[in-house]
Write the structure tokens for this entry.
Amino acid sequence: MSAQRPLITASAVVAAVLIGAVIAVQPRVNGQLALELDDGFVAALISFGVGTLALGAALLVWSPGRRGFGKVRAALTDRTMSPWFLAGGLAGAVLVLSQGLTAAALGVALFTVALVGGQSIGSLLIDRIGVGTMAPKPFTVQRVVGALLAICAVGWAVSDRLHGDVPWWMLVMPLLAGIGTGWQQAVNGQLREFSGSVLTASFVSFLGGTIALAVAAGVHIAIVGAPEPLPSDPWLYVGGLLGVVFIAGSAALVRTTGVLLFGLATIAGQLTSAVLLDIFAPVSDAGVAFPTIGGAALAIVAVCVATIRPRRARGVDRIRG
């Protein structure tokens, strides 16, 4: 089994890159839905709600997924699982809300690069601390340098926008959402461990996020009024289904790759897809500036650096933390 471990990890990384390429479309979809509704809160609720309904329908025909709830209940009862593992959907809700509020103004590429910085920081810290059955992973030169390069990539990508007309909170919000994403991936992986089902873990995550967004959207409507009528374009409602791909993928793969490696692999797919989207199908007249493209390329380099395995013989490469 140990001889097959590198191949299993490599396959998981490739799968994560493909998941990242798919999920890069989600900010475009949710951002456009928010524009059509003139309400980012309702757009986020619709996105999460569609994902929850799809997963609920899958549970009706997949009995192992339904049995997973009993295992989760048992783990909570005997206190082998923390109740906090049920709250991963809150971080997902913040991410989808940030898409609706900022992606259209920032552009998919800039939004994604800002998200990358948060993912890099959050994933590195979560891996170092450890969550549940996931043992802490010590800092290594490669992992630290990879995370720092990703943060530098964010700074480079947003450098030409800091003095522009984009409010500062639009740059900070996806950064914070990215930090939360690392924690979400870790707790969803733990839910999968305790439930024995990716479907169970994904549904719990989506249900929690949907409830949180329903409350937020209700408050927002009470303050500013109802949104515009629902648009008729069906593609505007697939954001939740794309989110299912990401949540299910993280629950299935993060145990094999670790939080940082999974996050950076999805980042590589996200950035490549996001830059191509902004070049060939832009949603705003801002275009794609050279710093954004350069930042995306640097972030991909960061992924490559972080995936380099340190030589066992060189214990000095480890940074004691």
